[in-house]
Design goal:
about 60 residues; alpha+beta; two-stranded parallel ribbon
Length: about 60
């Protein structure tokens, strides 16, 4: 399985990738929306699932 992590926080993305790697999952990264669109340009995705996690401080 291959997973794309999109997060503007490099450390969080790397931590998630480390855990997924332990399960044998291959990980690619995009660190912002523009990088995501560039990554997806011309690619065919078998399945896309969105997980949105946002921190709220206030």
């Amino acid at each position: 399985m291959k997973v794309l992590i999109v997060d503007d926080n490099y450390n969080i993305a790397e931590t998630i990738a480390d855990y997924l790697g332990l399960a044998g999952i291959t990980v690619d990264f995009a660190y912002n929306g523009k990088a995501l669109l560039s990554y997806l340009d011309g690619r065919i995705c078998e399945r896309m699932q969105w997980l949105t996690m946002m921190a709220y401080f206030g």
